[in-house]
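Supplementary Text 2. Reproducibility record for the structural model of the 278-residue chain.

All settings were left at their defaults, and a single model was retained for analysis rather than an ensemble. We include the record here because the model underlies the residue-level annotations in Supplementary Table 4.
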Amino acid sequence: MRETLPGAGIRPDESYGSPMWPTAEGSTSATPASRHVPFDARGAELIARVWEALELPGSARDYHFVLQSAVDRLWSTRRAEPEALAALEVSVGTAHAYVGTVVAHLADKAPGLLRVLRETDPDFALVDGTLAECDRVGDGQVDYSSKHRRHGVNVQVVTDPTGRILWLSPALPGRTHDLTAARTHKIIRICERQGVPLLADMACIGAGSWVTTAKRRAPNGELTPTEETINRALSAARAPVERGVARLKSWRIFRRARCSPTRLSSITAAILTLERQR
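Retained model, structure tokens:
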């Protein structure tokens, strides 16, 4: 089937620095997979086009958006065109099996923190923890975060100085303190080994000399003007990590996961793989 599809045998021209795919009108940066599904395709035609697009040359990001767009169209037209969903002929169990297989495959391709630091070699790294809320909890006390007053899991986000996500940690119970999580995942030790300084918030006070944090005001005391100036500078330097956390929360599952917390580690690794393709 693949050989009979238009665009299946073409190869990109990479002499421009980025791949350019030949077309009848000239060339384009859009891959054959991303161009194969017309915007106005509906019903059975849409489903057939999606299956064909998955056989054409493209990146993981292209396939992701092809599938996401198809799901959105099928869902928005489910009442007007119910026969389109019936044409899929996929049971709920099969769909769950497909999703589990894809997540496991993507999770296996997620790099470790040491490999990422060797590849990118940033001047310094930013680390921050976030809570991924979860409906289904195995242990209500362990998964409950007193800070956020929510159930969920703790995920550590490591970014470069511009806020680009470098690494996402496996999930830990929601009650885990950020400093404990950083030590559990050996974030501090790995960064020190690679010579990459860390900037963190005051949750990581006491992590050691390799981690720079703002200075906390002593009880019944005040910060000196110099200390306040340093704190403001550190806050400005740490601001990009908040963009990295916001990017992570753009994935709906991290805003409200409706699955077991034990599955979020593999889901986090899968999303790290997809984020590296952006």
